[in-house]
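Hey, I was hoping to borrow your eyes for a little while. For a while now I've been wondering how a particular protein folds. The fold is given in discrete form, as structure tokens running alongside the sequence. Could you read through the record and tell me how the tokens relate to the sequence? Take your time with it, there's no hurry, and the full record follows here:
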Amino acid sequence: MKKLITLCLIIFFLPLSFSQNYVWQLKKSGSSLGGPIDVEKYNHNNVYYGSVNKIFKSTDGGETFVQIGVNVPSASEIKCVIIDDDNPDVILVGIEASPDKILKTTDAGANWTVTADGLSFSYFGIPITQDPAHPDTFYTMNGNNFMRSTDFGSTWTTIASSFGTNSAPCDIEVFPDTSIILVGDNGTGIFRSTDYGLTWTQTYSTSGEIPTIAVDFTQPGIAYATKWAGGGGLLKSTNYGAAWTLMPGFTGQNMWGVHINPLDGNEIFAGCYSCGFTWKTKNGGATWQTVSIPSTNYQYFIVDSMNVFAAQGNGFYKLDSPFFIPVELTSFNAELQDDNIKLNWATATELNNSGFEIESSTNNIDFVKIGFVPGYGTTTESKSYLFIISETYAYKTYYRLKQIDFDGSYQYSSSVEVGSDLPKEFSLAQNYPNPFNPNTTIKFEIPDDGLVTLKVYDILGAEVATLINEEKTVGRYEVNFDASKLASGVYIYQLQVNDFINMKKMILLK
């Protein structure tokens, strides 16, 4: 019995084994709440941080900040900041006010427009979430009413009322390329929808709060969630949030922020609300390091392994380490020329750089090595690289670099996408948005010329619309379907091209 008790104590305190390899540095004093950090997708040096009623921007990777635009009207706290990756002057914010509001700017904060008012999400959580597969689509909650926008937050529609939780919402997360959405709340647990938020099921119960949920973009179905009170702890799901298990070593810790590296799902950061520690793993939670951090925790934001940020109660922090790989990648792009794909990249400086493995993927998740280019070792001169791919490739292919040091340490770049000029196979996409009211878009691809028919049927098989009935050449097409004259319900759309036939369901919700 004595040995058993000793073993249990070792397991309980395992996450508190302190590591000096990393240190958090306060870069911008402020007052954080929710998830006030965002980073431009195409320029990671541009980092945004919301504090009280101001938005600050860094152009040097979170080292220094200046305020942009005017103060956000009525805000007592900025709960989240979301940048339009295609036009960074467009910013969406959720603010704590009386009542709470969602505002949008199209001129980098010079002017603000209230797009949703009279809301109630004044708790510590992150009130707005973007659909990673559809960047114009957002979800929020007004009390226990679930709302959606399909125009980057300009207008909002309630799609589910009183869906199960009567408590304050804390965080919403969407699994990429699925209809699965998760919600954590204050005092009830975790709720799950498999139909874009129309219906909900509670998949985890607790008497405490679920402050943050994080979805893995590299390993389908995996998610983590933090527990504050209710026994505390860190939860993990491997089946898209249908079931959750407590991870060992965190029981009794009132956890708060959690985030997964979008390039490497094995790297996870999690933090407790006020115990002064960050937990960090690079092997999917098999082992953890801890790093001390002042104040209370709200959000972690991982850009990549070398750029990790935290929103603490007293400001914006950046993680620093003498062991970060000191190879500065300044560009990485791909282009299609004739039958070849040319990958080009450049470095500003290199230290102990053995070289770059080139990896490819057809789904931006599962990558395989296809080549290697040696590095220049150690140099302070900028260097350029070229890798040519001439073998057969899929219509859409993703490439990334794995930079390797001589000691075996490595770091991944962001991925770049290359698409061929013409489709290689028949494809009928799921309509979007879905559910819809009353318009939706249907996209398809055909690799051969032929007679194309695209028809819509009701659930009994009766034809209600013919969208296309004509000869088409090889290519990609999209069609708008206006269902304003139809009743709410489930409909079937069918594509036929020569011998190819495919059909999918869609939901009209008025």
Summary: The first strand starts at residue 23 and ends at 29.
